[in-house]
Amino acid sequence: MTHQQEAATIKPNTSETSVSLSTVQSEVGRLYHLLDATADILMEMNYERDGKRDVELDRVAALVFIARDNVQRVSQTIDDNFYAIEGGTRK
């Protein structure tokens, strides 16, 4: 079953689609660490091939760095506003 088929079989407002903010917060944090590790690996790579700059690798690196930085901002926003997003008051 493809991801699209799987998503189409999940009915709204069921426990199958219920996701807590804590879960989202954790997953966003994990995504940040994955992208950060990928960025570290990219920083160690040789950006020259056959005496020329590897433009494709530059593009991949740029996408990873942009994604990592945006995920970090989302993660920080969730952390800073967790209780407000949950609809409660800050402890």
Compact summary:
Residues 1-21 are annotated as: Disordered. It is built from three helices and two strands; from the N terminus they run H-H-E-E-H.
Distance between the termini: 43 Å
* Spatial strand order of the main sheet: 1-2
Which value, in Å, is the CA radius of gyration? 19 Å
Q: What is the structural class?
A: mainly alpha
Chain oligomer state: single chain
Helix content: 55-70%
Region (Disordered): 1-21
Keywords: Plasmid
Provide an overview of this structure:
This protein has 91 residues and is mainly alpha-helical. It has one domain (21-86). It contains three helices and two strands, in the order H-H-E-E-H. The chain has helices at residues 3-9, 21-44, 55-86, and strands at residues 48-49, 52-53. The protein has a two-stranded antiparallel sheet with strand order 1-2.
